[in-house]
């Protein structure tokens, strides 16, 4: 297993440090009790007004017809590696509480639910790679998603595999260093662009 | 401290189980190294194309002018309890990569970053209560947020306080049972509305 723990400037919890998005997945199925824990972690996420505006379409590899359908919505560059993973999950946001009543927090809350699912995955030794590179309208048609719901991302889930199974340039990307903007570039104090005093030493480091 | 751990149907990690959104906060300041870890946890979150479309305006209670300004953007029902917390953070999404180029994943990714910040907070014995009940345009004006960025939520952060300090009906809400939809109502199999076989026993329980 390739570990690419975050190289942090400040300590964070090991589950957050260890999380990253691999492309090489081992074929080992995600066990039913693992999948239930992933979904339960999403279930207990926070949401605006506790409306829980998320749904998940669960497509394990051995559900061959559905797996092929969801895989078929992915752009070629994602399909090439995602096809080997044991589990795909289509995430869906309820952006309309009812027709004509938008919920502007639906995508934000879906993101939170997926982040919590991902923490749970990490705790179980699994990885999650989120994809935006797929055709949501094709997915809507394939899985009969109602009009007031929005297919938003596809989660590729499984245990990490051997990077050597990936073709270039994916192999190189799998081993590349992880990068982030420095804290001082997106954390501000009394006004936008104004440094927080406690980050003053940090901005230079970043 | 009031603990309202989730009553889960399936095991989840203790940090996810323990997280909830209190309204009673102790006045104890969030230490600088704790705040740095919260922000660092957000920093290492996943995002579409790794664009990291989030910013955070950090307003501790002892920054009196800024604290009063941000507090002043909150609706009365939130101000009544949030005023006692030691730390407010305004979250901001970059919904335009540049003017005219929208990033449709900005809110989803901001949600993920906040969820990770919240996991880190829980690990440090702190709680986060997210608010949508505030005036984003007033916050934009008060803190000079640029046009291509969107003030989205306010995070109220600190150690849990004594629920008895809350007026009714907030006191009763602080002690009320936490609830979620059953898994079977938002997790589907081969198509929308179709149960996943592994959840068939679960749906009844919920």
Short structural description:
Chain A has 206 residues and is an alpha+beta fold.
Secondary structure layout:
The structure is a homodimer of 206-residue chains.
Chain A: H1 14-18, H2 32-43, E1 54-60, H3 64-71, H4 76-82, E2 87-93, E3 96-98, E4 101-102, H5 106-123, E5 127-131, H6 136-143, E6 150-158, H7 170-175, E7 187-188, H8 200-205
Antiparallel strand pairs in A: 1-2, 2-6, 3-4, 5-6
Helix pairs in contact in A: 2-5
Number of helices of chain A: 8
Total strand segments of chain A: 7
Mean pLDDT of chain A: 94
**What oligomeric arrangement do these chains adopt?**
homodimer
The greatest interface here is: A-B, 77 and 77 residues
| Strand line-up in the sheet with most strands of chain A | 1-2-6-5
Q: How would you name the CATH homologous superfamily of the domain at 24-161 in chain A?
A: NADH Oxidase
> What is the CATH class name of the domain at 24-161 in chain A?
Alpha Beta
* Overall radius of gyration of chain A: 19 Å
Taking the alpha carbons of the first and last residues of chain A, their distance comes to 29 Å
Judged by helices, strands and strand pairing, the structural class of chain A is alpha+beta
Helix content of chain A: 25-40%
């Amino acid at each position: 297993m390739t570990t690419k723990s975050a190289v942090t400037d400040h300590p964070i919890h090991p589950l957050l440090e260890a999380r990253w998005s691999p492309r090489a997945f081992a074929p080992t199925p995600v066990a039913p009790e693992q999948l239930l824990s992933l979904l339960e972690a999403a279930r207990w996420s926070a949401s605006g007004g506790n409306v829980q505006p998320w749904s998940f379409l669960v497509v394990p590899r051995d559900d061959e017809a559905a797996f092929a359908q969801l895989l078929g919505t992915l752009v070629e560059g994602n399909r090439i590696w995602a096809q080997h993973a044991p589990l795909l999950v289509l995430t869906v946001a309820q952006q309309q509480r009812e027709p004509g009543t938008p919920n502007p927090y639906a995508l934000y809350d879906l993101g939170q639910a997926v982040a919590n699912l991902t923490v749970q995955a990490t705790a179980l030794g699994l990885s999650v790679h989120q994809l935006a590179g797929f055709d949501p309208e094709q997915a809507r048609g394939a899985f009969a998603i109602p009009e007031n719901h929005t297919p938003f991302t596809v989660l590729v889930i499984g245990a990490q595999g051997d990077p050597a199974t990936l073709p270039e340039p994916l192999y190189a990307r799998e081993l590349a260093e992880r990068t982030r903007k420095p804290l001082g570039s997106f954390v501000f104090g009394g006004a936008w662009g104004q440094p927080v005093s406690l980050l003053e030493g940090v901005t230079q480091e970043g």
